[in-house]
Amino acid sequence: MDYNFHWRPVFRKLPELLEAGLLTLEVAVLSMVLGITIGLGLALLRMKGPTPLRQIATTWVEIARNTPALFQLFFFGFGLGAFGLHLSPYLIVLAGLTFNNAGYLAENFRGGFLAVPETQVRAARSLGMTAVQTYVRIIIPQVLKIVYHPMTNQMVWAVLMSSLGMLVGFRELSGETQFFASKTYRIFEYFAVTAVIYYVIVKIILLASNLVARRLFKY
Amino acid sequence: MIEIKQLHKYFGALHVLQGIDLNVSKGEVLSIIGSSGSGKSTLLYCINGLEEIQQGQVVVDGTTVHDKKTDINKLRQRLGMVFQQWNSFPHLTALENVALAPKIVKKASKDQAKSIAEKQLKHVGLGDKLDVYPSALSGGQQQRLAIARALAMEPEYMLFDEATSALDPELVGEVLDTMRLLAEEGMTMICVTHEMGFARDVSDRVAYFHQGVMEEVGSPEQIFAAPQSVHTQKFLANVR
């Protein structure tokens, strides 16, 4: 083998890479918060919404699930750009990931709602609870348990998907790595280290998720 | 007093309640018997407004249940309900199951709600299960939990929808005992039931439902010893 590994330049850029890792985490978390909110709305619309809104929600879910995430990012980047709406790379990635998360989560949530028996609603309403109280106190906590682990999966997926950001000029972890790698030609070394950083980020997310689950779901 | 007047209920084309007239006075225990699909459970759901009706009316203490102006959530506080599938809230402990509605519906303080819940759980014999989740309770215990949960709202009436039908046979007794206890305490109860022993021994009156019609209603002696309607006679002959 005539390739000489040079790790030192990579390690010298470690602070920059870790900072970019934080940016990756930030955009992933934000896209999840927005995705959960919108996904919940989409799920409710698909189950109970009036027909036109239900169709819009269904179309959203189908496009998010049936097309590559990269194309969804491109839509918010080059697609909107073609119409004169230029988003910053950060917003392109945030919008793209949110769109994708919302679509996938909407289906998870819908499954979660269908899994809680209708009789739970009756029991709560028979005690005099309003429809809103019934949802907030009885139904959603049960749905949350059902969708929790799929939701964690989606969070992991959002972190990994954000690496597509480098293709729309976003300097998150992958973008930053690409930037340094192309300057130094230490492509393997940079991406190997970055892979480890991704691995650690996901590992931390999974550990945190399990800890929270143990606190939340005692039953 | 619960007054049911010429009540008609349809599920699509299915005429499940065909002009029911029935009054239940304070302190009375009424058992409703009849085969499955006779409309007896649906009647209970109509009384607390969980089902819409198409004709007639249900009046609870002067308030018309299906009147659009009626505050149904307030009215339901007067009508405790216990279901065949006990429907305990799986994500809450026994105590939380019972304390929740007093807290968020009646706006009781946290401490008040807790003491109400403790009292009612002791009442049904679950005083040692306060912090247990329903998944760790037997069916009979979960059903008693459901009774405590309904009682915590201090209802004037209790509606029992086949409260023992989904239980293992050896667990039926403890739930019936709890229901007996309530009857002795003077609770007004409407019990849809397949437990003929309970209907005979505990009720003041028994009503027999057949295909959406209340065939007859009378004292337990009258219904069990000398049923007038052919359908009642046939039904009782079969369940004995």
Cα end-to-end separation of chain B: 32 Å
Estimated radius of gyration of chain B: 18 Å
Beginning-to-end CA distance, first to last residue of chain A: 57 Å
Order of helices and strands of chain A: HHHHHHHHH
Strand content of chain A: under 5%
Q: Based on DSSP secondary structure assignment, what is the total number of beta strands of chain B?
A: 10
CATH architecture of chain A: Orthogonal Bundle
Summarize the structure.
The complex is a heterodimer of chains A (219) and B (240). Chain A is built from nine helices and no strands.
Structural key phrases:
heterodimer, A: 219 residues, mainly alpha, MetI-like fold, 9 helices, 82% helix, 0% strand, globular, B: 240 residues, alpha/beta, six-stranded mixed β-sheet, four-stranded antiparallel β-sheet, 10 strands, 25% strand
Explain the layout of strands and helices.
The complex is a heterodimer of chains A (219) and B (240).
Chain A: H1 8-12, H2 14-48, H3 51-66, H4 69-82, H5 89-115, H6 118-126, H7 131-161, H8 173-184, H9 187-216
Chain B: E1 2-11, E2 14-24, E3 29-34, H1 40-47, E4 55-60, E5 63-64, H2 72-76, E6 79-82, H3 94-104, H4 110-123, H5 139-151, E7 157-161, H6 169-184, E8 188-192, H7 196-202, E9 205-210, E10 213-218, H8 220-225, H9 230-239
Parallel strand pairs in B: 3-8, 3-9, 6-7, 7-8
Antiparallel strand pairs in B: 1-2, 1-4, 4-5, 9-10
